[in-house]
Design brief:
Elements (H helix, E strand, L loop, with lengths): L3 H8 L4 E4 L3 E4 L10 E5 L11 H22 L3 E5 L15 E6 L21 H16 L1
Antiparallel strand pairs: 1-2, 2-3, 3-5, 4-5
Length: 141
């Protein structure tokens, strides 16, 4: 496997904002906005479903701290946190990552979807998810 993020970590060639035991942050080559940063686990996990909960927690902790740093250092009043995971999600690099994009009022970009999915389900998706969570919780205890 030749993962671009694993290579950045292994070769220490990222433009690092933070490097911690389980997670790191670096600026991408083509940022959406000044200060756009990627947060990635230091070990390879393809997506959210195969990442251990403690690594997800460490990732979100760094995301939150970065958002605070963006407010303090860049005067960004808001952030978008973006992630794609798995087939059909438009995940560009199969290594779990979170884009933390600083935002300013009237900054001219939109990171929000402009349409809705054409995919349709039979049944109420909220009820289906609630039932699946109950089943998953029962198998985990």
């Amino acid at each position: 496997m030749d993962c671009v993020f694993c290579r950045l970590l292994r070769e220490d060639t990222g433009r690092w904002v933070a490097r911690e035991a389980d997670v790191c942050a670096f600026t991408p080559l083509n940022p959406l906005a000044p200060g756009h940063t990627l947060v990635v686990p230091t070990r390879h996990y393809a997506g959210v479903l195969d990442t251990p909960p403690e690594v997800l927690a460490a990732s979100m902790s760094l995301v939150q701290r970065l958002a605070a740093a963006m407010r303090a250092a860049l005067a960004a009043p808001g952030v978008n946190v973006l992630s794609a995971s798995g087939p059909g999600s438009e995940q560009s690099v199969p290594h779990l990552h979170f884009h933390v994009v600083p935002r300013w009022v009237d900054d001219g970009i939109s990171t929000w979807p402009t349409g809705t999915s054409r995919h349709r389900l039979v049944g109420d998706p909220g009820e289906m998810l609630a039932d699946a969570l109950l089943r998953l919780d029962r198998t985990q205890t």
